[in-house]
């Protein structure tokens, strides 16, 4: 349930093109984050957290895991996601 909705004044940049990400955060009544999204206006990068589920869309790839997944699995997925970020950043750097 979305108890309240706030758009934070926190600023995040796209790790690929450095544009400012659109940031939205939905908090529960107890103040804990229930849903959080960060997305690049150019569509390189999309992060979603919702109810213990983490999802990244990086370029055309999707990475996802659950908050209570095995630590090693989470770390592996996270590494893969950020390798993809690095790959796209190098690509867009015109190298
Ligand atoms: Zn971007």
Architecture overview:
There is one protein chain. The chain has one domain (4-92). With 95 residues, it is α+β, with helices and mostly antiparallel strands. It has one helix at 71-92; strands spanning 4-6, 22-27, 33-39, 45-50, 53-58, 61-66. The termini are far apart. It has a 6-stranded antiparallel sheet, covered by helices on one side. The longest helix has 22 residues, at 71-92. The chain binds zinc ion (ZN).
Secondary-structure blueprint:
Elements: E1 4-6, E2 22-27, E3 33-39, E4 45-50, E5 53-58, E6 61-66, H1 71-92
* Beta-strand residue percentage: 35-45%
Numbering strands along the chain, what is their spatial order in the largest sheet?
1-2-3-4-5-6
Number of helices: 1
Overall average pLDDT: 89
Broad structural category: alpha+beta
Helix content: 10-25%
Quick one: overall form? Answer: flat
Number of strands: 6
Q: Whole-number radius of gyration?
A: 14 Å
User: What's the story with the biggest beta sheet?
Assistant: 6 strands, antiparallel
- Tell me the distance between the termini: 46 Å
Oligomer: single chain
Order of helices and strands: EEEEEEH
Unreliable spans are none
Ions, cofactors and other ligands present here are: zinc ion
Number of domains: 1
Task: Write out key terms for the chains shown.
alpha+beta, flat, 1 helix, 95 residues, binds zinc ion
Concise summary:
This protein has one domain (4-92).
